[in-house]
Each structure stands twice: as structure tokens, then as C-alpha cells.
Amino acid sequence: AVVSTQSTGNQRSMSGRRDTEMAIGCYQPNFLYSEEDGLPQGDVGAFRKSLWLEHLGELCEEYDNPGSIECMRKVNEVARANWERYVADEQEEPMMGHLVSYPVTIEQDGSVVALEGFENFPDTAAPVLGTKSGLLVEKLTT
């Protein structure tokens, strides 16, 4: 199965006035995980790999098992490197795909804090931590 979501990080979306999101779910009952065959290799798996190639700029062995800690570490490594390249004054190396890490850090007590110097997204006035809605209950907005 694949669940794919999309988030836009531009002034229109980040200003808080309007936004567009997309999510899809895919399932192939004839291609399921089994101990013998491992992860399914049907069209849904191929679709997942094509999305990862698009967003991460490469396919590597770590992505073969998307639920593994190795995969998570590799995705985070690429996303952090892309963030550093994105905010650099001069881009020495091109970004790998276009996935960047969200510019926050999680403190020991669980609080979420914007990265130092990035209280707003680059090139916008949109705060990284967002703002609470005056119309919606807090559980829906943060």
C-alpha cells in the first residue's frame, strides 16, 4: 500500500490564508507482503519508488525497505543536506531531488522550536511554527 501526501512550501500556502493539499492511497490485493517474497513488487511499489526518485534524486538500497530505520536515516540525511544547500548563500552542489527537512528541532522536553535564524521560511514572512487559528479548535491546527 502507498499513502502519499503533498505539501507546498510557497508564500501562497505558507501565508495561512489558503492552501492546497493532496493525499492518495493505493492498494494491490494481489501484491502483499509475505515472509517468502518480502515486500511486494507490483505497480504500487514501482509508483512509490518513482516518487522517491523524484523527491530524493536517487534510488538506493536503503529505500528498498521503507519501514526500516536505515531508510528513515537515509531520507533524513538527504533532506538535511538539501536544506543546507537550499539556504546556502552560494550553492556549491545541486540538491538531490527537492525534499528538504522542515526547519525545526525537537527539544528534550518535546517542544518544537524553529531552527536558529529560520523563524520564518526563507524568502517569505511565513513563520515556521505557524500561528493558531482563531476559528478552529487547537487540535485541528497544531
Topology readout:
Blueprint: E1 2-6, H1 11-14, E2 22-26, H2 43-56, H3 69-87, E3 104-106, E4 112-114, H4 138-141
Describe the overall structure.
It is a single chain. This protein is α+β, with helices and mostly antiparallel strands and 142 residues long. Helices cover 29% and strands 11% of the residues. It contains four helices and four strands, in the order βαβααββα. The strands form two sheets. A two-stranded antiparallel ribbon has the order 1-2. A two-stranded antiparallel ribbon has the order 3-4. The longest helix has 19 residues. It is globular and about 50 Å long. The chain starts with a strand and ends with a helix. The model has no long low-confidence stretch (mean pLDDT 81).
What's this entry about, in short?
The protein has helices at 11-14, 43-56, 69-87, 138-141; strands at residues 2-6, 22-26, 104-106, 112-114. It has 4 helices and 4 strands.
Secondary structure tally: strands: 4
Oligomer: single chain
Largest sheet, strands/sense/barrel: 2 strands, antiparallel
Average residue pLDDT? 81
Total helices: the number is 4
Question: What are the key terms here?
Answer:
142 residues, alpha+beta, two-stranded antiparallel ribbon, 4 strands, 29% helix
